[in-house]
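Consider one such protein record:
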Amino acid sequence: MKHIDLRFSAVRILPAVLLLPLLFQLPVSQATENHAMDKPDAAPASSSPISGAQSYALTDAQRVDLAAKAEAGDADAAFRLSLYYTFVSSDDDQRIRWLSIAAKGGHIVAQHNLAYDLYMNGKDLAEAARWAAESLKNGNADAGDLLKEIEAARAKARGARP
């Protein structure tokens, strides 16, 4: 009998794993809000269904407007830009830039997602723990489980038992 390897390569799974927290944290209102952002005379957003991909798309004017708002301290605008650079433009540098600005501005989902990203990439477990703790402190109960995972990984990296 021929052996069939059913294991999945971590290289193929990792990008999807990194995006899962983002997918579950996006408010539904944001998806419909983007659709009419440049159309002030359009019908109410809730009356026009859009696809998931359209909810992340931004025009050049929208990106400029959001960037100005984000630079002025609007954490929601920075988070929306991070979603654009995650799902539409696939620019990791810009995604992390705007996600970091949103997290520093107090956006609890951005804090959670930044912690998750740092943890999954193994970039900086101490910083990942800091952002997970901040998200938990700000009311994100899911961040508690993430913080436990990060702390276990930190203990393992130090050679101690979790």
In short: Confidence is low (pLDDT under 50) at residues 5-20, 26-47. The two ends are 41 Å apart (CA to CA).
